[in-house]
UniProtKB/TrEMBL annotation:
InterPro entries: AAA+_ATPase, ABC_transporter-like_ATP-bd, ABC_transporter-like_CS, ABC_transpr_LolD-like, MacB-like_ATP-bd, P-loop_NTPase
Species whose genome carries this gene: Piromyces finnis
Entry protein name: Abc transporter
Record lineage: Eukaryota, Fungi, Fungi incertae sedis, Chytridiomycota, Chytridiomycota incertae sedis
SUPFAM superfamilies noted in UniProt: P-loop containing nucleoside triphosphate hydrolases
Domain spans labelled ABC transporter: 29-279
Amino acid sequence: MDECSILGEENTWIESAPTLQKPLGETVLTIKNLNKYYKIPGSDEIVRALKDINLSPDSPFYPIRKGEFVILRGPSGGGKTTLLNILGTIDSASSGELKILGERISADSADSYLSNLRLRKIGFVFQTFNLLATMTAFENVELPMTVMGKLTKKQRKEKTLRLLRAVGLQDRINHLPSELSGGEQQRVTIARALANDPEILLLDEPTGDLDTLNTIEIMDLLLKINLEQKTTCIMVTHNPDVECYGDRLLFMQDGQFYKQVINEVQTALIYEDYTEYLKAKDKNKEIEGLDNAEV
């Protein structure tokens, strides 16, 4: 059974770049001939983490546009998180060209310039939440606005409450991270990532530590943000079942793109149908295990 056929509305998967049913905006991210090398300390050995990555008009892997939801897939060690860190300017490429929102990023870009770019334009959501343990949900979400320094205290309060309501945590604003479930902590992380109205949202395994229900709720929330706010989302995941939330899948292996798949219609998983599918999948594995044991 195809993972995306359990959704109630079957998706159409094709290998080229069609006109999507949802309109996309201008180009927000372009990559040309990007490489990342690491030198192993104490030796002359070079590890190539990324090899000639392209997301450009003259490449089969075309640039990322405003409002697009791109999912990076592939085996561990394939370069997905390395690429995401470079797109978020947390790390720098060894060679090649990267343009984010028309601004050229290179190893020579000043740390202050990159910090300001991240604060203004890029939101981050990680698997491990990275919330400040001594701050409440409200304080964690308000913090980026305080650092930005553009809003008054009253404006920050109003926006923080609005964001926490949007992620369904209006009753948990004064709770510390330790007092919240994993799903609730991830909702706080998403609200915090949206605090300064980023144009690009980078997500590294955002549902990796969550159960089935929370996985669907978080993915539904991300889909809503993507569709309603036109926020460009780029997400790394090992979970093939959430592929149907994206517009485009980029498959990576050994530091390279090797396949691109387009989903013409984004669709949310249906919890009841999905859990039945997972049960059937586990049962089939159990039967296969018994059959192999008998052989």
